[in-house]
Structure formats: C-alpha cells, structure tokens
Amino acid sequence: MKKAIAFMLSFVLMCSLSTTAFAQETDKPIYDEETAKMYERLYAEDQAVIAEIERNLPMLLEEGKIIAETDAKSNLPQTRSSALGSYGDILVSLVIDSGSSGFAGHAAIVSSNSSKSIESYAKSWSPIDKDGVQYYDNTWNTKSGALLVRPNGATASQFSTAASFAARQIGKPYNWVFTDKTTTKKFYCSQLVWQAWLDAGINCETGSVPNAIIAPADLVNSSNTYIVKQVP
Predict the structure, then answer these.
(1) Which band of pLDDT confidence, cut at 50, 70 and 90, is reported for residue 73?
(2) Is 121 exposed, middle or buried (0-12, 13-18, 19+ CB in 10 A)?
(3) pTM score, two decimals?
(4) How crowded is the C-beta side of 88, counted as CA atoms within 13 Å?
(5) Which helix or strand (DSSP H or E) is residue 117 part of?
(6) pLDDT tens, 137-166?
(7) How far apart are alpha carbons 123 and 216 in whole angstroms?
(8) Who contacts 55 (Cβ-Cβ below 8 Å, separation ≥6)?
(9) Which of 148, 142, 50, 145 is nearest to 91 (CA)?
C-alpha cells in the first residue's frame, strides 16, 4: 500500500504549487529569497504527503493492526494504558500545533521511561520554555489524532538503542536549518526521531518521497514503518 502511495505522490509532487510555508517567529532565522522559495516548495510537498496519508489512513491502520498482532507475540516493548507507546516508539501528529516547525505536525520518541517522551522544540514553541532536545511528559494519549508508529521488523534491542540515542541528545539546540538533516549537533523534531532510529539500523525515511528534509509525515509514510494506532 505504501509503495503505491509513494508512486502517486511522486507524480503529485512534481505538479505541486508553492504556498506560504512558515509563520513568523522572533527567533527564526531570516532566509534569503531563494531559500524561502525552496522551503515553500518543500512545504507544499509535505502537505501533499499528509493529504495522501489521511486519504489512506483506514487502510494503513488495518495493515498496522495485522503487523502489531504479530509483534504482540514477540519480545517487543508493550504499550501501557497510562502513556502512548513504549521505549523507542515513534509518536507523530500531522496537524499544526504550537510545536510545528512550519511543516505540519510534530514528532517525538518515547524514552526508556514510557511516561516521558524526548522531543525537540524551538524555545518559543516549547511547552516548558526550553530550546532544543528535552524530556517531556508523555501526554500523547490525550492528543486527538496522534499516531503511534513503529519500524517494521525492529527488535527489542533496536527499540532500546533508538531511545538511548535520543536521550544522549538532551540539551542540544533546535535545528533551524531543516535541510541539514544529517547533523547530530542540533535537531528539529522529526530529524531527532529519524536519526535515533538510523542509529539503531533502520532508516525511517526509506520509501517515502525523498527530498531535502525529514518531516513528521515522512516517518509515517515510510515503507519501513507501520501505524500501530491512532488516538481517538
């Protein structure tokens, strides 16, 4: 199913039109005209990905349910009712919220303590008024529409490795250069999650429509991930 989505998006994105990409923030760098146009194009591509995910969400949830049932029989982290997900799990919102980097949505990774998530916000958007990578209370089970996402075929050890990587980044600053997704000196939200799982040996961008950034939607649309559940 995701391969078909990726194929359709490849055509849609070639035809996508630029839209206004970012709200103004006092601590946001000022981009030159060429860079601003690039981000507008990337934003339009991101919106096309999200629209396609939303259209196919019922089928993606059904596919994920089948995979999750298999995982429940193996030695993988089990979710808790008091928090969304367990260590190493990927949490994604595809709606614009106070933590949006301009691209729709937000992403987080569950820490080794399931009651805590590890997330990266710009200070002006942070619910705890701190810049960059920090621990947050895992209240994602209260966010309507939030998605619990897992990498395909990951082992318990890989879940632990991903959570540990994210924890080692605590205190690093927010990354405003969204196209610099391979740096480990600073992170935006979905970049942190992607890098954590890359460190564990799984590329959660594979199979999504590749471009210069790693957006929250890419973590959902990847052929290397599946959706476990959606918060009502």
Answers:
(1) low
(2) buried
(3) 0.84
(4) 25
(5) strand 116-121
(6) 999 999 999 999 999 999 999 999 999 999
(7) 19
(8) none
(9) 148
